[in-house]
Write a structure and sequence with these properties.
2 copies of one chain form a homodimer.
Chain A lengths: L3 E9 L1 E5 L4 E3 L4 E2 L3 E5 L6 E9 L6 E4 L2 E3 L6 H20 L9 E8 L9 H16 L6 H11 L11 E4 L12 E5 L7 E8 L8 H11 L2 H21 L3 H20 L10 H19 L7 E3 L6 E6 L3 H11 L41 E8 L5 E2 L14 H7 L1
Helix pairs in contact in A: 1-2, 1-3, 2-3, 5-6
Chain lengths: 409, 409
């Protein structure tokens, strides 16, 4: 047996197309409605986490993006760690495993490959990484769905980041949350043509946190009740659209659900606004893009969705990325050239300077100043968590972050 | 008998606190829910209309703000004129009146004392003026509630501008609309302390027209059904708040209903946005103003409401106008000095430069550039339509607009 056990994993970000908003239990992160998301590719957005446990450690410790965080007893991180230790203990008891890893303290080191300030939910990939990483360290045989019950307690949407592709979080009915868990609806290979253009929007004001916001909605919005009633049918429709690779239906449902979610935010007292004038302009562009596309008998070719912030995620099929990026950059000029990771532009194509689609009403939005959309990220549907090699560990054999160790030198 | 009959009237604008949104009959302007409004004072906002009818006239004609408009057969204006002629005909038949005014053509001349571009619903006061003016010309004994059935067919909210004070529009259940009419809930004297600060917000984009917008909402928003269910209880609560002069309840209901209306707009496919970033900032200011007021045990002291546009109407009691204007001008500096019609500032008071309320969180909004709020109008609850003297006629004895006659000279 080694002096310590260790694993390093990466986990993806997911962006819901049927949104989670409203908790029936705050403590257990039990939702008032089911949700469904697309897992985005880790080449663009992911969390990397190393967990190391050792009998030498004096306490559980955590470094996030290079800075040590206090693990508050009974807090979300502590809850996830304790739940994972319980799973390990049960494993030790059941298989008479002589290694008392469940009794050791754990050091965790984690960072995101995307800027936290971008407003892209990092808690989902973060808590998924924590749970998946500990499951790997503890050599647990549990399925991702079983682990999702624990990730959910860190951050609701984290339960969906334990899978690649298309992921449902079934709300469950049990009071203890034992049936409120994630499952994969379809893998990233089933419909690998699904791409996403993320428009990172500047936000001058600090928004309302999701946790306090959704609680206020449940307490004060009469419309949330109607939303709760309509989501089950939407979940079924969305699962069907994904199974059939029906982008037209997928797009319509995605946009309707995003708007429905922001509508209940607005119906909250005091109202919650996440979208701003830039978001509204992006909405107008996508609808105009689709209007022209429908005229051409091509159906909906783009679908925006907004989480609890002003950023737009525009889903589309790979073949339409070029037109969409060109359109967005026409209205929202960028300081930096477009990072064309997946090579959709070729030859003399200049994103933002190519013609708009025929019959596109250019007056649907004004042209904004550079910086109104701070950046564009082209990504696609991606796989679930990955385990990295030992060389990629973020911790030294002594259990301290390598970055800190380097700084000391 | 004179060669012509003539009358000149002024009618007020009204701003709903329980909003009208959604038609169950487009042709008859029958709403899917009841609504309730405050009539604003005509000293600040009104429509003036002269109607003249004469056997010499060759056709019905209309001049709006100095420009002749075509009266489309079967259109809204024509409908109102024809309905009024029918009422006159019934009167002639019943009372054996020998003057066949119902057979004469009518010339109408109308203007608003406020800029049309300000986005303040001018159709309400406009159609109310048309109907009230013809009723006066035709010497009809009908009540305002009876006339409201006709004004409603011009523009739904016009039916509420036939009364001063606080006005309900009961939705009715009959298919022919015969019970969908306005009634006065309380006169302007009942609660004359109710003031309004209108923040005229610049809007770069042209919004969706109310008529097409509300139809799209009825057809596509699942949440509108819940709105329709909840309005009757809100109407009752609002009537109670007005009867009791309970500003705290009035304010809470007003804001909730405005947000609820904009929520169903957002839930529409494609979504309808009327509020912009300036509107959102005004919402944040009013909520912060109320938060501090509630801390001081003074309850809600301000209530915003937004119609189908970005302008905020902030209702408050007269004693709070000063603090509200000062707050708005602190964040939204004005090119012109505040027009202090009702003398709420005195001595060295400078609106926008006085202290904000104690404990007010100044960071709740940023300070905007001059022009983001284009103007502030201080007004108050006001009376219903008024009949003016003959000297104030907008038409010459020949039935032509005086302004045009003057231009010819």
């Amino acid at each position: 047996m080694a002096d310590y056990w260790q694993a390093t994993v990466t986990t993806p970000v997911n962006i819901a197309v049927i949104k989670y908003w409203g908790k029936r239990s705050v403590a257990l992160n039990l939702p008032t409605n089911a949700s469904l998301s697309v897992t985005l590719h880790q080449d663009q957005l992911c969390t990397t986490t190393t967990a190391q446990c050792s009998k030498e450690f004096a306490s559980d410790r955590l470094w996030l993006n290079g800075k040590e965080e206090v693990i508050k007893p009974g807090g979300r991180t502590d809850t996830c760690i304790q739940e994972m230790k319980k799973l390990r203990k049960a494993y030790e008891d059941k298989y008479e495993d002589p290694h008392p890893a469940s009794e050791w303290h754990v050091h965790l080191c984690s960072f995101n490959n995307f800027p936290t300030a971008a407003g892209l939910a990092s808690s989902a990939s973060g808590y998924a990484a924590l749970v998946h990483c500990l499951a790997t360290v503890y050599r647990l045989p549990n399925t991702s769905t079983e682990l999702s019950l624990i990730a959910r307690q860190g951050s609701g949407s984290a339960c969906r980041s334990l899978f690649g592709g298309f992921v449902a979080w079934d709300m469950g009915v049990n009071e203890d949350g034992s049936d409120s868990k994630a499952r994969q609806v379809a893998s990233e290979d089933h419909w690998d043509d699904i791409n996403a253009v993320i428009c990172v929007v500047s936000d001058e004001k600090k928004g309302t946190s999701s946790t306090s916001g959704m609680q206020r909605t449940v307490e004060t919005s009469p419309l949330i009740q109607e939303r709760i009633r309509l989501v089950p049918a939407r979940m079924a429709e969305m699962e069907r659209a994904i199974a059939a690779q029906d982008f037209d239906a997928f797009a319509q449902l995605t946009m309707k659900d995003s708007n429905n979610f922001h509508a209940v935010c607005l119906d909250t007292s005091p109202p919650i606004f996440y979208m701003n004038d830039v978001s509204r302009a992006l909405v107008a562009l996508v609808h105009e893009f689709n209007r022209v596309s429908i005229l051409q008998k091509r159906g909906h070719r783009a679908a925006y969705t907004f989480d609890a912030g002003p950023n737009a995620v525009i889903y589309c099929l790979r073949r339409n990325v070029k037109d969409i990026v060109n359109m967005v950059m026409h209205y929202f000029p960028q300081a930096e050239p477009f990072k064309d990771t997946y090579k959709v532009f070729y030859g003399k194509d200049t994103p933002g300077q190519m013609p708009l689609p025929k019959e596109f009403n250019e007056a649907v939005a004004k042209r904004w100043e550079v910086g109104a959309v701070r950046g564009l990220i082209h990504t696609k549907v991606g796989p679930g968590p990955r385990v990295l090699d030992v060389e990629q560990s973020l911790l030294t054999p002594e259990g301290m972050p390598k970055s800190l160790a380097e700084e000391k030198k």
